[in-house]
Write a structure and sequence with these properties.
mainly alpha, Arc Repressor Mutant, subunit A
Length: about 210
């Protein structure tokens, strides 16, 4: 079998891994995690079985990799929203919560909430809190400095908010649009109380921006 040189090989192996992930993600989305086999991924990528197992020990490990990749992308997007100079601090906080969602990645939500993945769900929530706390905390601190928010501990409040939203919106697959809208309204009402702003402050921005109806 032809083996590329060391220099080229590193790039080749990286590209192969990326292609495995791309194909697996596509198949998970279209067919679901349970209906996708390692063999079907191998066949579609066009590689030997050993090549796949060089990069991943199992289908579960591929999915965990996809999940972590998705989380990293969400964090990068959150940082971009938080650092934007085109919007005031309240609008950026609204965008942070309305534009960051796994709703389009339903196969990931299905996977995370399988009973056997309870530890993974806990781990992902823990990572989300760790990554998002400083981002939201910086925004709350900015609002405090501008005399918009009345909070004593910006980063402590940020952590409470992230834990709260993680629990409140944890896998809403069976919720009707009315039930989901009610949860959103409850969230922003409590957010206003936590940040010490006038009732309706966030709801006005949400409705005005059209990012989410509530």
């Amino acid at each position: 079998m032809y083996r590329p040189s060391v220099g080229f090989g590193g790039c080749y192996m990286k590209n192969t891994k990326n292609e495995i992930v791309r194909v697996a993600k596509e198949m998970f989305m279209l067919e679901g995690y349970d209906n996708t086999s390692v063999r079907s991924i191998i066949d579609k990528v066009g590689i030997a079985k050993g090549t796949l197992y060089h990069h991943f020990s199992s289908k579960k490990e591929i999915m965990d990799y996809v999940l972590n990749e998705t989380l990293e992308a969400m964090v990068l997007k959150a940082r971009a929203i938080a650092s934007s100079q085109n919007h005031d601090v309240i609008t950026r906080i609204v965008m942070l919560f309305t534009k960051l969602s796994l709703e389009e990645e339903e196969y990931l939500l299905d996977y995370i909430h399988k009973p056997e993945n309870i530890k993974l769900n806990y781990y992902q929530n823990k990572l989300m809190i760790e990554h998002m706390k400083p981002i939201l905390g910086d925004l709350i601190k900015e609002g405090k400095e501008q005399k918009i928010f009345d909070v004593k501990f910006p980063y402590g409040v940020a952590e409470l908010i992230i834990i709260y939203i993680t629990e409140l919106f944890d896998y809403n697959a069976n919720l009707s649009k009315e039930e989901e809208a009610k949860k959103i309204e409850i969230f922003f009402t409590n957010l206003e109380r936590l940040l010490g702003v006038k009732e309706g402050t966030f709801k006005k921005v949400v409705n005005g921006s059209g990012t989410m109806d509530c």
